[in-house]
Design a protein that fits this description.
The protein is of the alpha+beta class. The chain contains five helices and nine strands. The strands form two sheets. Strands 1, 2, 3, 4 and 5 form a five-stranded mixed β-sheet that branches. Strands 6-7-9-8 form a four-stranded mixed β-sheet, covered by helices on one side. A hairpin with a 5-residue loop joins strand 4 and strand 5. The longest helix has 15 residues. It is elongated and about 60 Å long.
Length: 207
């Protein structure tokens, strides 16, 4: 029988529906945030079978950590049921699903910006898409400028974060090549109490 999460991943995409499958939770959080960032007033989160719990996590993370202006979901915003799917052997089976509608309250994200807020994303060992989500969220919440900073081996990941953000999610970001990139050496404290110098990069993003 076909894995239900595989079905969701390969399903034809509808503009305001995010189908939950086997990818990390934060990938789907980013997808929802990006939909709102692109002007959607309502985004539906849909999952089947074993992915249902992840769909609930996605809805709660979006609301509680990244987009506090998203309402609910109330009882009217949540649907559960079962759908009939075609298996690889030609037979049919039913699988449970959940669909959660997240709705924007229509607040202006720029109203949340306070001059002097921390606007630096430090890139480390977490997956690249976590940092992309952090940048998208900062700008979605009205930040006029966000800096991406990394040291040592994380520098390549910082460049990936910037390029993925610019090419796939917020295309209005200006090319930072001319005046938005700073490289230097920084002194860091080692575990044995000694200090050493490590290269660093800071890339400043502006719309």
């Amino acid at each position: 029988m076909m894995n239900q999460e595989q079905v969701d991943e390969g399903e034809q995409k509808i503009e305001n529906i995010v189908y939950i499958g086997r990818k990390p939770t934060m990938n789907y959080v980013l997808a929802v945030v990006t939909q709102f960032n692109n002007g959607m007033q309502e985004v539906r989160i849909k999952a089947r079978g074993n992915a249902i719990a992840r769909a609930v996590d996605v809805a709660e993370i979006v609301k509680n950590r990244f987009m506090p202006d998203v309402s609910g979901p109330t009882n009217d915003d949540i649907r559960i049921g079962s759908e009939e799917l075609l298996n690889e052997d030609g037979s049919k089976s039913k699988v449970s699903f959940i669909q959660i509608a997240a709705k924007s309250n229509g607040n202006d994200p720029a109203a949340n910006y306070v001059e002097g807020d921390d606007n630096i994303i430090y890139v480390g060992k977490k997956p690249t898409m976590n940092y992309v989500l952090a940048v998208v969220t900062q700008m979605n919440n009205g930040k006029p400028m966000v800096a991406v900073k990394a040291r040592g081996n994380a520098i390549a990941k910082a460049v990936d974060v910037v390029e993925i953000t610019r090419s796939r999610f917020i295309k209005e970001i200006r090319d930072p090549s001319s005046d938005g990139i700073t490289i230097k050496s920084e002194e860091v404290q080692n575990e044995d109490g000694t200090s050493s110098k490590v290269s660093s990069i800071q890339i400043t993003l502006k719309k």
